[in-house]
Design goal:
The protein is mainly beta. 10% of the residues lie in helices and 28% in strands. The N and C termini lie far apart (59 Å).
Length: 709
């Protein structure tokens, strides 16, 4: 199926859903929603829909929105979508302090520094309440914390003095760091959680766990990497399960509260880019898994990527909705992907609702690798991001930019979706390693089955290299094993997510470097290195970059953790000025009717201010964080990195209704709620992804002007 080509105008791919039908569908609110419409009490909204029943702000008056308050949280990466319950907003700071603000004024109620934290992102929180008992659950680093939402203090009776250590209970063969970046989900008196781990080995083996909300006791576990002789173990090469890692849920889950089903999207098995030691499709990695929320028993699964060697984690929580198929209403679950396909399943049976076939994909040329020969492809909807980079799609922004990317393209491998990375030759990954879809999630009109998704539409590039040798505790080997996959063998990184480490020892104090290694920061997990290993990495970073360190030169051949090849680092495919090597759009926002699988509309999302000043506007940009939809048919989204703009669209037509500048990029998913007699929309902002912005972060609230008294 050919890619859908876009320009800056809205494409009407099918008859637009009428404004009246959208409003009617929105007003048919979720009957079993756990909280009143005035609150935003669940991360991602009820059933992952990003939907609010509020309608005070509508398509007619949204243009009058103005900033109501702002709360600054200091420098760092803020990715939190807050909760708002009974007029109190609960959020996080970049340094993992938990805050409670008055939702109407932004005034601080309390601020709590957790006893142990790191600089990993915290994308959301979980509130449990039963009668008069309430608990605010916060995952921070390897800890699941239970707080009293009235005071911010840890609840003594939960776990060990108010928290549970998520590193406990792993099999002896499992290793690697564990961090909880997405919030847990609730089923009665259970909080169900996943975790984040490293992209390479050693990595913790994926497991979904349910804890008692009162005591913190473990109630059940589901092993996403099966144990020997468990169902799914036959999909792994003999002997590989003992050291297997990854296949973890880092992006969050969604619960069908009527049926007691928790839907779990999983990530890649480690290593992300070389799987010679795990030949086979590798269940339950890269799968949507439906579990009995009360017991953890697997009900069904669908593997969306077989034997992943391209870091194609399932990137966002699934969305529950109801669609019309064959004249009947079908309860469905929709799962977006990094590679631009959207899969829609019957929620009960796991059967795809659109025809899906196994299509042949390019084979790996790397010695020892056995890539899977086919990958699932739905007949509909069409991909929400372009999937094949060809010469005619390369940028023509300037003649110089075009000539440079043509030269790089001619030397690279670009054979369409699922082209594996090669040794010593660049492979183009399109869409890139950050999607397609990303962790912010999607919105839906729950009654009409219209699905709203923002996407990245830029290529990245990568390759493999033969591993080097040496003492496994030497700085060179430790760096290669644990750091090079993100920062590159040449230490150049891919800023801002993966900063350059060239000259890092001259720019940072030794203690700062060690603190980042052991505590984690941004997308970097915390590593459990002893003091000797910490110093070995720091000393290695003092030496020449680009693989020229004497320690590396003097080493002989070896295998690192059973691997012969290592990923050389994440890199965007850009022109000499740093703009994407492909022609725009570089980011999009789409509406898809999931009853038919056809698009309602699609528009570019975002712009580069300096390019817009020269007349190149509406290019779209990379975007992080998702949209939300209100009952009045207004779709709110920030997400764009470089223009620092918050936007409201008409959900029926895709027309821009309102926009406002933000102090920093709105790279989180907004929320809406009612407090003090008014409807507010709040978004977390952060300068972390924009290298040109002054450091800072904070929450910004918008509302209609207050009525005069």
């Amino acid at each position: 199926m050919s890619d859908i080509k876009l320009t800056s105008r809205v494409f009407r791919l099918v008859a637009a859903v009428g404004a009246a039908s959208l409003v009617a569908g929105a007003q048919a609110q979720l009957a079993d929603s756990a909280y009143p419409g005035k609150d935003w009490a669940i991360y991602g909204g009820a059933e992952g829909t990003h939907f609010s029943t509020l309608s005070e702000i509508n398509t007619a008056n949204v243009g009058r929105l103005a900033q109501a308050w702002r709360y600054d949280t200091g420098p760092g990466a803020l990715q939190t979508s807050p909760l708002v319950i009974d007029g109190i907003l609960y959020g996080m700071t970049p340094t993992q302090e938990v805050i409670a603000l008055d939702g109407a004024t932004g005034q601080l109620r309390w601020r709590t520094k957790l006893p142990t934290s790191d600089l990993q992102p915290v994308r959301g929180l979980t509130m449990w309440r039963d009668g008069g008992e309430t608990r605010l659950f916060v995952g921070a680093g390897p800890w699941l914390n239970a707080l009293d939402p009235a005071t911010g203090k840890l609840v003594p009776g939960f776990g060990d003095a108010g928290r549970v250590d998520l590193r406990a209970g792993f099999d002896p063969g499992s290793a690697g760091p564990v961090a909880m970046t997405s919030p847990g989900v609730l089923w009665h008196d259970l909080i169900i959680v996943g975790f984040r781990t490293t992209e390479g080995k050693p990595a913790a083996a994926g497991v979904i766990r349910a804890y008692d909300v009162h005591t913190g006791a473990l109630r059940w576990s589901f092993h996403a990497i099966p144990r020997p002789n468990e169902p799914g173990s036959e999909t792994w090469a003999e002997g590989s399960l003992g050291t297997a890692g990854g296949a973890n849920n880092w992006t969050g889950m969604t619960v069908d509260t009527r049926r007691g089903i928790v839907f779990v999207p999983t990530g890649s098995a480690a290593d992300d880019f070389y799987g010679a030691d795990r030949i086979g499709p590798n269940l339950y990695a890269n799968s949507l898994v439906a579990l009995d929320a009360g017991t953890g028993k697997r009900l069904w699964h669908y593997q969306i990527v077989h034997h992943d060697i391209l870091d194609r984690d399932l990137p966002s929580p699934p969305v529950l909705l109801t669609v019309r198929r064959g004249g009947k209403l079908v309860d469905a679950v929709a799962q977006a992907t990094k590679h631009g396909d959207l899969f829609v399943f019957d929620r009960v049976t796991g059967q795809p609702l659109f025809p899906t076939e196994e299509r042949p994909v390019p084979a790996s040329l790397t010695p020892g690798e056995q890539s899977w020969p086919t990958q699932p492809k739905p007949a509909a909807p069409a991909p929400f991001a372009r999937q094949s980079l060809t010469a005619d799609l390369l940028t023509t922004r300037t003649p110089e930019a075009h000539a440079a990317v043509v030269e790089t393209f001619a030397r690279a491998r670009s054979e369409g979706p699922f082209t594996p990375v090669d040794v010593d030759r660049k492979t183009i990954i399109f869409p890139g390693f950050d999607g397609g879809a990303e962790w912010g999630g999607q919105a839906v009109d729950p009654a009409r089955g219209v699905f709203f998704i923002n996407a990245n539409d830029v290529p990245w590039i990568g390759s493999l290299a033969k591993v080097t040798a040496g003492d496994p505790n030497s700085g060179a080997v430790l760096y290669e094993r644990s750091c090079a996959g993100c920062h590159g063998l040449d230490r150049q990184g891919s800023p801002p997510e993966f900063p350059s480490l060239q000259g890092i020892v001259g720019r940072k104090m030794e203690r700062e470097i060690i603190t980042a290694i052991t505590g984690g920061k941004g997308r970097m997990p915390a590593f459990d290195f002893d003091q000797q290993q910490q110093l070995a990495i720091v000393n290695y970073l003092r030496g020449p970059s680009g693989g020229d360190n004497r320690e590396m030169q003097q080493a002989g051949p070896r295998q690192a953790n059973g691997q012969d090849y290592i990923f050389t680092g994440y890199q965007r495919f850009v022109d000499p000025d740093g703009y994407p090597a492909v022609a725009p759009p570089w980011g999009t926002l789409s509406a898809i009717d999931l009853n038919s699988g056809k698009y309602v509309w699609r528009v570019p999302l975002g712009y580069y201010p300096e390019l817009a000043a020269t007349g190149l506007a509406n290019t779209g940009t990379e975007n992080y964080g998702g949209p939300i939809l209100t009952a009045s048919g207004v779709l709110f989204i920030g997400a764009t990195v470089f223009d620092r703009v918050f936007r409201a669209f008409d959900a029926a037509r895709g027309a821009l209704l309102w926009s406002a500048p933000l102090p920093y990029s709105g790279v989180t998913t907004p929320v809406t709620y009612r407090a003090g007699g008014r409807q507010f929309v709040v978004i977390g902002t952060s300068a972390y992804r924009d290298p040109k912005a002054a450091p800072g972060s904070g929450y910004v609230a918008f509302a209609l002007p207050a009525a005069p008294r």
